[in-house]
């Protein structure tokens, strides 16, 4: 599997193809950069090339602690700082499933467990944002839900509203702290039509949490920031 940096020219790749980022190879995954402030995603890193066709996934790429010559380290920025994060995530998959795992399965796991970020959907396919925690906590036998689940506001203070796809049978929604502690759970009513659901999160301390919805062997995970 080849992990490619998208490049640092602030280009929309649909208008000016760059290589190797724009090779249409099934075993390639192209990585762009985001700017973060702690756990909060501020948007595309200003230097990062972008495309909702050619950039598969995004990862932090600004002020990344990096090795430098003469046995030193320092802060560096660029899509070449983001690509190693995705390479590390791919390595985790191979360590878990074995080195003979088909590259298509590895790529699928990386993309299916990424956060779908609407504000970044013009920057990368589906606004995919690397989420190693979700990758590591998703059972390999659980198929990701194919329908998108949107929730807002995020970050949130008091309540969050989820937009859910049709769910014919009852499901369970849970919220976990990053330590793995379950902090709450709600029953999701069955419905043949899309529905909305409001959950109270004001009791949660400020921090980052994972929302998880299980339904008939399928799994969806989203990252929630509580203010």
TrEMBL record:
Descriptive protein name: Peptidase S8/S53 domain-containing protein
UniProt domain Peptidase S8/S53: residue ranges: 2-117
Alphabetized NCBIfam families for the sequence: Por_Secre_tail (TIGR04183)
UniProt domain Secretion system C-terminal sorting: residue ranges: 152-217
Family: Belongs to the peptidase S8 family.
SUPFAM superfamilies per UniProt: Subtilisin-like (SSF52743)
UniProt GO molecular function: serine-type endopeptidase activity
PANTHER family with a match to the protein in the record: CELL WALL-ASSOCIATED PROTEASE, SUBTILISIN-RELATED
Tagged with keyword Ribosomal protein: no
Top-rank lineage group of the source organism: Bacteria
GO BP, one annotated term: proteolysis
The entry's keywords: Hydrolase, Protease, Serine protease
